[in-house]
Amino acid sequence: MPWLYLLSAWLFALAVAMAGYAFWNHRGLHLRLEPKSIQAAPGSPLEELPEQLLRTAPLPAAIFEGDALELDAALETMGAERGPASVTGLVGARHIGFSTGRVPRTGWHHSATIPDLRRGPLGAASWEITTGDFLGFFRDRRECDDLEVALVLPRFESLTRLQHARELEAGVAAPRSGSGTEMFGVREYRPGDSRRRIHWRSSARHGELIVREYEPPGIRTVNIYLDAAPNNVEVADQIARLAASEAWDSIRAGGRAVLWAPGSDPTQASRDLWALLEWLARYPYPPRGGRDEAPGAPGDEVVAVTASDRRVVEAADVAKARGSRVRAWVVGSAQLDLDVAIERVGTAWPL
Q1: What is the C-alpha separation between 21 and 24, in angstroms, rounded?
Q2: CATH of the domain at 59
Q3: By the 8 A CB rule, do 235 and 242 touch?
Q4: How many CB atoms lie within 10 A of CB 311?
Q5: Are residues 213 and 242 in the same domain?
Q6: Can you tell me the distance from the alpha carbon of 232 to that of 318, in angstroms, rounded to the nearest whole number?
Q7: Listed range (86-95, 129-138, 253-262, 282-291) with the worst mean pLDDT
Q8: Residues 241, 156 contacting (CB under 8 angstroms)
Q9: pLDDT at 119 over 80
Q10: C-alpha–C-alpha distance, residues 291 and 11, integer Å
Q11: Which residues contact 175 (CB under 8 A, 6 or more apart)?
């Protein structure tokens, strides 16, 4: 029965060939996850912010809580076409899976929409690429590193109720700036600007000349004190929204904002709305211990945004004793020994 030996040899050769192909296929595929587009939810700040401000947003776009993210999950190949392959993983709490029998040289793409995003880092975890051969003899599974796909910013709105949304464009397009020594932001180049003020890194990023802007002395600064450890996620989200709104009102009026929570380092006094929102997106921060020292100088404005943090109350009392104007937002019904103007709110948004 020589044909049986011949058949066995052919099957063995086929298995070896498929094993070699499966190994080659496994090593040549890589997963890439990137935001593709943003769908603004009703009431999202994306619908209200002026175009000039949005142009300086973090790339690829600003993402606010409640918005929907279209995610591009791509399998990329090194050189030749490959496949089959399947991919599974989590983005936030959403499970995503897809498979393909062929990955062309240009890569293979799959889009998934993640709705109703929550504030904070949006992580991709437990992702695996499963590869094999065309006949299904062999299968190999490779784990991918966890990564942060996007940072979801807190929602905010003007708390002053003094300007209509249509007036925001003018308020941001013409910020107060001068020839001081402290830089508060950047803007597009205008005829007559000194070439010394060109910010080359930002210019390369945006594809046009961008210049530094410096603020005059005596500008309004609002120090915003936040709880170090809110009771739950809903309270933390509301504190972040209120702080973002206070920072936005200060910046829109030509001032600066400082963010601080006991146990964490305060931000720089800044007019960079995006930097402040990114700080708030990651709030609350793990406690670092050591001495709690609130920022602010006598005469600065202080806004406490708290649910029940005693250290925030004490810092606000100290600020008031040294001459600062102090007011407070209290999330919930906690009774605080704070002799300042208090506005109480729940966790619903908008207010």
Answers
A1: 5
A2: 2.60.40.10
A3: no
A4: 17
A5: no
A6: 27
A7: 282-291
A8: yes
A9: yes
A10: 72
A11: 184, 185, 213, 254, 271
What single DSSP character describes residue 309?
Answer: -
Tokens of 243: 């702080």
Q: Is 148 exposed, middle or buried (0-12, 13-18, 19+ CB in 10 A)?
A: exposed
How remote is the C-alpha of 189 from its chain's centroid?
27
Pair (127, 47) in one structural domain: yes
Q: From CA 158, how far away is CA 177, in angstroms rounded? A: 22
Instruction: Map residue 54 onto helix, strand or coil.
Output: helix
Sequence-distant (6+) residues with CB within 8 A of 4 are none
Helix (H) or strand (E) holding 130: strand 120-132
Contact 109, 76 (CB under 8 A): no
Same domain, 268 and 203: no
pLDDT tens readout for residues 141-152: 889 999 999 999
Contacts 24+ apart (CB under 8 A), 162-169: 163/252, 165/48, 168/48, 168/49, 168/50, 168/252, 169/50, 169/51, 169/52
Task: Please tell me which residue, 309 or 14, carries the higher pLDDT value.
Answer: 309
Task: Of 330, 350, 351, 167, give the one whose Cα is nearest residue 253.
Answer: 167
Please check whether residue 302 is in contact with residue 296, taking contact to mean a CB–CB distance below 8 angstroms: yes
Which tokens belong to 72? 């591009």
- The count of structural domains within the chain is 3
The boundaries of the domain holding residue 341 are: 165-171+219-345
Place of tokens 């890569």: 107
